[in-house]
Amino acid sequence: MAEAESLETAAEHERILREIESTDTACIGPTLRSVYDGEEHGRFMEKLETRIRNHDREIEKMCNFHYQGFVDSITELLKVRGEAQKLKVRSFLFTVTGIIQFFFFPLAKLVIAMEELKQCRLQQRNISATVDKLMLCLPVLEMYSKLRDQMKTKRHYPALKTLEHLEHTYLPQVSHYRFCKVMVDNIPKLREEIKDVSMSDLKDFLESIRKHSDKIGETAMKQVGLGFMIGWPVTLLVSVKHGFLSAKCLDCFVPGAQDLVDFSPVYRCLHIYSVLGARETFENYYRKQRRKQARLVLQPPSNMHETLDGYRKYFNQIVGFFVVEDHILHTTQGLVNRAYIDELWEMALSKTIAALRTHSSYCSDPNLVLDLKNLIVLFADTLQVYGFPVNQLFDMLLEIRDQYSETLLKKWAGIFRNILDSDNYSPIPVTSEEMYKKVVGQFPFQDTELEKQPFPKKFPFSEFVPKVYNQIKEFIYACLKFSEDLHLSSTEVDDMIRKSTNLLLTRTLSNSLQNVIKRKNIGLTELVQIIINTTHLEKSCKYLEEFITNITNVLPETVHTTKLYGTTTFKDARHAAEEEIYTNLNQKIDQFLQLADYDWMTGDLGNKASDYLIDLIAFLRSTFAVFTHLPGKVAQTACMSACKHLATSLMQLLLEAEVRQLTLGALQQFNLDVRECEQFARSGPVPGFQEDTLQLAFIDLRQLLDLFIQWDWSTYLADYGQPNCKYLRVNPVTALTLLEKMKDTSRKNNMFAQFRKNERDKQKLIDTVAKQLRGLISSHHS
């Protein structure tokens, strides 16, 4: 057993020795520790000594073998001794440096680290204190940053609220800091900046509503025209976001009306100025600027009267202005008040009425005047919806009504002129029942005898009768259109229509008829037809009365109802036409008489009337044949007038001063012409005369000619002055004039007359008769 342990120990010692021999010196510690830890330490040391001696012997052998080399090595070592010394010193230095580096440098670093730690902890305490202070200042800075951001984004009202919180809540907590003092000093500037920027927004708002007043007014008038908004005017232009309108109401609106204007700038600015204690300044500025805009809006363009669009734009701007003001009145507290609105409206009303009076006076188109009236009514109704008094506008419309009537009269004057100029002044022919009914449908005419006649047949009047009648009805309709929506009673409408129609009849139509009647080239046929036409138009006046009654529902028997003057108008036109017929006939007679070529010195006795007179009588016969449709008195008067004029003209022809001499033969020819005239009168060219009434037109000529041809001076002179004398119509002056012409002829044409007893006796008789005639004339004058 002991032997076995000895072997193990020897093996272990051998292993350790090998390990010592083969192991690096730096790593021998663990090996040596195992030796010292063992119990056979002494024995190991013995083996170690033995091993050392063995190695020494090997070394000695080796050295002996390498002695020369060793000597050489020593020699070399001696050579490098100095270098080795140097190396030794350097090695020492390196060793010291290493020790310092190993011990002292870490220690210095430690000291430095500790100092840094100290500073770090000091910084931490400072940071902690700073953080605490910053946490106190941070809300202030955040509020200030928020304020600047709100001002940059033009959210001025929130910025003002932020500024209030900053000034009263946050800044007092950090008032001991310098930056706080800077902020406090900057607050008044910020307030002024907010005021200035909000005022700039207000100016932009004012400019915007000035530009959009036209559209605002157009929308408001359109809504009133469509029957919207009644009962809730202030909701016209409020945005949905303000919550003033229900969705149901908005559905009724013209699209886009509620979004035309954003009033938030004026609300914000008003609140900002109120908060800043400058509300009065803001109110004064707003009202001043709006007054200026009102004056601009109320200034009409110079060419406004040219088109309806000019008036429409003018009204739209005014309505837009007052819609905005009304909305401001109802959505702000005291920015504008009713007195201010009323003052502006009174100014606007007076300027608007003055502008309309001026510009409407230039209008000559009744359609434009009617459209203007409808536009004014819509304008007034729109503003009335907003609570503005508009009675003066409706009063002014009555003035425009008179102008409208004048423009209508001018228009219808042209219509009547065209009708009268284009008429053929011939009875209307109809060839079928359809044509007959068409004419009767246009004009109220009833004639049983005409209805019984077979086709073709003719109406007694020409085409201008139904045309004029229908145009009178159109005129009445046009008058009625203007009276619509003027809030007039039926009686007022009826009175207006009747007065305007009377002007049409008594002035416009009357003048048109008079112009036609007085036309130079008017013929007798046309004049006759005019008389017939005006007679039928006169009869139609009662139907016009009924027509007006039906559309106004005012009975003619109503007190103060104006009567139509159509009867008077057509009577006057007819009388003028009659007078023109008389004048025209006389002119025609004068034209024929100008063809008369009497040989006053002829001695031959003729056997027939003069050619010119035969033609004249033929003309009169044909003319009076046309008078069959005229009223009896008109035809009779025309015929009597023509015969009287013919007799007077023949008498003047016989007695004119240029005829100094005439013979009995010429007087006989003249007598034949007068007989032709008397024959025409007896033939009854116009029915209705009693016996020889028409012949009385030639009685003066007949008695004068009978007196001279029969040479019945004794009877004339004896019966002169008696009521039943034969030559009652012969004036002594006329007889003396004609006698003088025959006396001169007797003297000059028969040079031997004094030698013939008969001639001498005749000449003496002429002288005696002439003397007696002069006596009659003298006694008559005395």
Automatic annotation (TrEMBL):
Pfam families: EXOC6_Sec15_N, Sec15_C. One of its GO terms (cellular component) is plasma membrane. Residues 47-221 form the Exocyst complex component EXOC6/Sec15 N-terminal domain. Keywords: Exocytosis, Membrane, Transmembrane, Transmembrane helix, Transport. Coiled coil: none annotated. The keyword Disulfide bond does not apply. Residues 392-741 form the Exocyst complex subunit EXOC6/Sec15 C-terminal domain. GO terms for biological process: Golgi to plasma membrane transport; intracellular protein transport; vesicle tethering involved in exocytosis. The chain crosses the membrane at residues 91-114. This is Exocyst complex component. It comes from Canis lupus dingo (dingo). The lineage of its organism: Eukaryota, Metazoa, Chordata, Craniata, Vertebrata.
